[in-house]
Amino acid sequence: MASESSRGSRASRSTASTQRRVLSCHHGEKAVLRVSGTKENPGRRFWVCVRYACGFFEWADQEQEEEDLEKARLRKKVSSLKSRLRACELRLKIAVFVGMVGWALVYSLWLQNSGGRPQHQWLL
């Protein structure tokens, strides 16, 4: 019976990272998160209805697995973004170097064509 009531009891999951999913049983009561103190499941988290006679029960392990998967996905994304950032920084450094070398070449060619001295008075 507990599995029947837990199937249809999932409400919505909030997109905010600070909020946990909210469960409600088949009669609409909000489920609460408890921690097991039994010898078989010490410290294991589970959801129950505030009315124990309702029979609603669900282990919170699945929620932890989903959070772990989300963390792994975000770590992979951060790693990918960092590598893209390093590639962009390298391209920028190369572009700045090529630009500076280009300007130096243009300036040296200009000085060669002008005989080593500025041709305009404003360049003195």
From TrEMBL:
Biased composition, class Low complexity, residue ranges: 1-21
Spans through the membrane: 90-110
The keyword Amino-acid biosynthesis is annotated on this UniProt entry: no
InterPro entries: Znf_GRF (IPR010666)
Keyword entries, A-Z: Membrane, Metal-binding, Transmembrane, Transmembrane helix, Zinc, Zinc-finger
GRF-type domain ranges (all copies): 25-63
PROSITE patterns: ZF_GRF
Keyword NAD: no
Region (Disordered): 1-22
Pfam families for the chain: Zn_ribbon_GRF
Top-level lineage group: Eukaryota
Protein name per its UniProtKB record: GRF-type domain-containing protein
Origin organism lineage: Eukaryota, Viridiplantae, Streptophyta, Embryophyta, Tracheophyta
